[in-house]
Design brief:
The chain has about 120 residues and is mainly alpha-helical. About 80% of the residues lie in helices and about 0% in strands. It contains four helices and no strands. The N and C termini lie far apart (about 50 Å).
Length: about 120
């Protein structure tokens, strides 16, 4: 078993893999946000109102789709951290990725949630 107190975790290939994972999750969240914004702005109700986020449905979908993608990415990163820990590899990289994605999710949801107020 690995000694968790010892801080010599250096695994460049794991870091590259984690970086690609973060970029993929952020890319998916961005694509999800763009698709939902285009959908929300093309709704007949919103065309008449002249606002992209004209009702609760639009605000909810634009907020939740990228938020759920970031949440799933964070949970996936923590699952990968657990698997790396079980394989006695550098797991703190994945734990950091998970918490980074959770933080981005909370920031995104707080920004989108205040738009309707």
């Amino acid at each position: 078993m690995v000694n968790d107190v010892e801080k010599r975790w250096n695994d460049p290939s794991m870091l590259r893999h984690a970086t690609r994972y973060v970029l993929a999750v952020l890319g998916l969240a961005t694509v999800g946000a763009v698709i939902t914004i285009v959908w929300a702005s093309a709704r007949p109700r919103c065309l008449d109102a002249g606002s992209m986020l004209c009702d609760g449905t639009s605000r909810g979908v634009v907020g939740l789709v990228p938020g759920v993608i970031l949440l799933a990415g964070g949970i996936g990163a923590l699952v990968l951290a657990f698997r790396a820990w079980r394989a006695e590899r550098a797991w703190p990289i994945w734990q950091g990725v998970g918490w980074f994605l959770f933080t981005l999710m909370v920031i995104y949801l707080s920004i989108v949630g205040t738009q309707g107020a």
